[in-house]
Design brief:
Elements lengths: L1 H17 L43 E4 L15 E4 L3 E3 L4 E11 L2 E10 L2 E11 L5 E7 L8 E5 L3
Antiparallel strand pairs: 1-2, 1-8, 2-3, 3-4, 4-5, 5-6, 6-7, 7-8
Keywords: Signal
Length: about 160
């Protein structure tokens, strides 16, 4: 029985002898975590994805027109105007509500929109891109029934 107790008592020492030695550090010295070139910690983890927006960014907000007359309501026929807010697009005879945003970065937004107008409902996948000076907006549609060519709007003065 005594020899069995002695073996049990020596077991942790035997296990410790098999492990790597513990590196002693001076008191107060911190251990640095390895860093990957992209700034991530050195554990091989992928960098975190950029958060996807949930609203239309402010740079897109406001009224935009295809023709100069679209920026005024003098004739009441601003058929080429689009007004963009946080979650809506307003056209002459339709309104679109923001759906899922698939891409969002400075001056570039791609999302789906649920349209209603003239008694009908439809969905569109649209990319909006703003020019570097913020004065032009290009609208490109994707998918079935999409416009064949992009449309370019000019920012209306407030």
């Amino acid at each position: 029985m005594r020899s069995m107790l002695a073996l049990i008592a020596l077991a942790p020492l035997a296990l410790a002898a098999c492990s790597d030695p513990i590196e002693e550090r001076p008191e107060g010295e911190e251990t640095m975590i390895p860093v990957e070139p992209d700034g991530g910690i050195g554990d091989g983890a992928e960098p975190l994805p950029e958060p996807v927006a949930t609203t239309i960014p402010a740079a897109f907000h406001g009224r935009w027109g295809i023709n100069p007359g679209d920026c005024t309501d003098e004739n009441g026929d601003a058929k080429g105007a689009i007004t963009i807010s946080e979650d809506r697009l307003r056209f002459y005879e339709s309104v679109a509500t923001l759906g899922a945003i698939s891409e969002s970065r400075d001056g570039d937004l791609r999302a789906t929109y649920a349209f209603t107008g003239e008694g009908e409902e439809w969905t569109r996948d649209i990319r909006f891109a703003i020019s570097e000076d913020g004065t032009e907006l290009t609208r490109t549609e994707y998918g079935e029934d999409a416009m064949a060519e992009p449309l370019t709007y000019t920012k209306c003065q407030a």
